[in-house]
Design a protein that fits this description.
6 strands, alpha+beta, 4 helices, single chain
């Protein structure tokens, strides 16, 4: 299952990361292709945008149990900032820990409440 938080979705509304981009990123992550393991089931994953390539694309912070559940928590363009700071990293780890602990019924309720958005393949 792949989800994006309400905050992540609000960030990407003005950007160009599609659900299919997120699905492709998760498929890559399941093959061990991510940019950094930040600890606490939190990963940094670069996603290419258009034909610019990954180095000019977006950085996403993903809470994940690889191959099972993925939660896109935060994104930023490399042109906007180099990385997240220590406080942000700690907060994102805590958020990932909470989401990963939820059972499917709780996740469904968060989707119903609009706190999480399920990522679906439109191809």
């Amino acid at each position: 299952m792949i989800y994006k938080t309400k905050v992540f979705a609000s960030l990407t509304k003005k950007e160009i990361l599609s659900d299919n981009d997120l699905i492709n990123a998760c498929e890559q992550m399941s093959k061990g292709l991510f940019d950094a393991e930040l600890g606490g089931n939190v990963f940094k994953k670069r996603i290419a945008v258009g034909n610019k390539g990954k180095s000019a694309g977006y950085r996403t912070i993903v809470g994940a149990v690889i191959g099972d559940k993925y939660f896109f928590l935060y994104e930023f363009a490399k042109s906007d900032r180099a990385n997240i700071n220590g406080k942000e990293k700690l907060a994102l780890k805590e958020l990932a820990k909470e989401f990963l602990a939820f059972n499917q019924t709780e996740l469904n309720q968060l989707v119903d409440d609009g706190e999480l958005i399920e990522v679906v393949n439109y191809e």
